[in-house]
Amino acid sequence: MDFDDTALKMSSRLSVAVSTIGFNQTAFIALVPLIATATGLQTGEIGLTAGLGAVAFVASAPLCGMLGARIGARRALYWLGVVLLLAQLIFLALMVVGPLPYVPALGLLVISRLVYGAASAGIMPIAQAWISGLLPQKERTVALARLSAGLSIGRILGSAAAVTASVMPLLPIMLLVASPLSLLLAPAANDTVGKAGPRSDSRAYLSPLDGRLLPFLGLGFLVTMSFGHVQVILGPLLQLHLAVGPAEATAAAGITLIVVALAMIATQILVIPRLRLDNRTCVILGTVLLAAGVLLVAVPLAYVNLCGLVMAGVGMAIATPNYLGWLTGRMEQGEQGAAAGWLASAHVLGQGAGAISGGYLFTVSAQAPLFASAILAGVAVLLAFSMKARIT
User: Fold this and answer.
1) Measured between alpha carbons, how far is 151 from 21 in angstroms, rounded to an integer?
2) Taking the C-alpha atoms of 183, 22, 140 and 206 in order, what is their torsion angle to the nearest 10 degrees?
3) pTM of this prediction?
4) CA angle, 333 as apex, 221 and 219 as ends, to 5°?
5) Major facilitator superfamily (MFS) profile domain spans which residues (predicted)?
6) Looking at residues 214-227, what average pLDDT do you find?
7) Would residue 275 count as lying in a domain?
8) Radius of gyration of the chain (CA)
């Protein structure tokens, strides 16, 4: 078995390991009613703690990426997993002790989400940099797509775990707490695999204004902000298009998002390995599909909406690992973790900006967020088209 085959197998194991991040994202959101009951906190306060966790994520991602280059990817993932488990144990204690006074309850939840957000920020960038340092450009994109698929599978499993609350309310909480243990599946490796090469100390700090990095941060922000517009209004939009009540619209949105997630996973696992296009062309293709898909969502027909969302999701699934692979191909090996971290921060900022903008635009017109989403995706197409391809 050659080295590239070994690295691709490593990416499969890493995709399982990083699934904990996707699992937590959806499980925590789905468990908000249980969290409110167990802690006595209101939904807005729980949302605030989630927002603080996102802020910690944005600040921590590039720093954690640099940590992986300094101490080795395997060691960094291990210690981040320990910190994640500690954060989840704080959360578990809060849930099982029973309603505490307001300040201690809010304080413990804030601590748990801040610690979790800061540590979880490093998981994907470190794994992405680890794989990127092992493979040439073509195989790198395939491996990065597998990591993204692992994240998506984790999101689906997180939603499924929440369903078990009807059988045993504590079970999904215990699964959520135990989810960081998946990081133990990160493959053991020798120093040449787990650490960056001799160039790792060539740059102590990678600025987000670095000319090699900045266009990709723009791409990541535009693409995720575009898709964020659609995600936040999906339930209310389906309620209008289907002429149903809030509960039915919520169920329809949930089913739709599962279908889209499955389509994205299938694209990442089955389609991307068979694409014979360079990264730049794939990014352009993906962003064009995203723009076309969100425009189809504006059509007031349910089956057309589903087709449009699947198309947009497939576009995201094609574009994201390709601009990440394109970016890491431009960076020194010791800079790849920090670059992936900055890109992860841009993704979170884009998702947040899309949710805020889309929510407000929906109050103006049901179609306004979709047209804004298409415009953002179109700008991403133009940005990718203007960038020079470079294969390393």
Assistant:
1) 7
2) -90
3) 0.77
4) 15
5) 10-392
6) 93
7) yes
8) 20
| Tally of CA atoms within 13 A in the half-sphere of 2 that contains its CB | 4
Query: How many Cβ atoms are within 10 Å of 390's Cβ, its own excluded?
Result: 13
Q: Which residue is listed with tokens 């599978």? A: 153
| Mean pLDDT, residues 93-112 taken together | 89
Question: Distance (Å, rounded) from C-alpha 392 to C-alpha 384?
Answer: 18
Distance in angstroms (rounded) separating the CA atoms of residues 214 and 195: 25
Name residue 285's amino acid: L
Residue ranges making up the domain that contains 373: 214-386
In a domain, 116, yes or no: yes
Same domain, 180 and 43: yes
Cβ neighbours of residue 154 under 8 Å, at least 6 residues apart?
A: 18, 19, 20, 21, 22, 23, 24, 25, 26, 179
CB–CB of 370/297 below 8 Å? yes
Tokens of 49: 């703690």
How far CA 251 is from CA of 239, 244, 248, 255, 257, in Å, comes to 10, 11, 5, 6, 10
Mark whether 108 and 239 lie in a shared domain. no
CA angle 321, 322, 328 (to 5 degrees): 85
- Please give the tally of structural domains in the chain: 2
Tokens standing for residue 351: 């998702």
pLDDT value of residue 191:
39
The residue assigned the tokens 């936040």 is 232
Give yes or no: residues 7 and 73 share one domain.
yes
- Give the Cα separation of 24 and 112 in Å (integer): 13
**Looking at the predicted structure, is the pLDDT value of residue 178 above 80?**
yes
Domain boundary among 137, 168, 184: 184
Q: Tell me which of 253 and 386 has the higher pLDDT.
A: 386
CA angle 147, 373, 157 (to 5 degrees): 35
Q: Are residues 47 and 111 in the same domain?
A: yes
pLDDT digits (tens, 9 = 90+) for 8-31: 677 778 888 888 888 887 788 777
372 and 245 co-located in one domain: yes
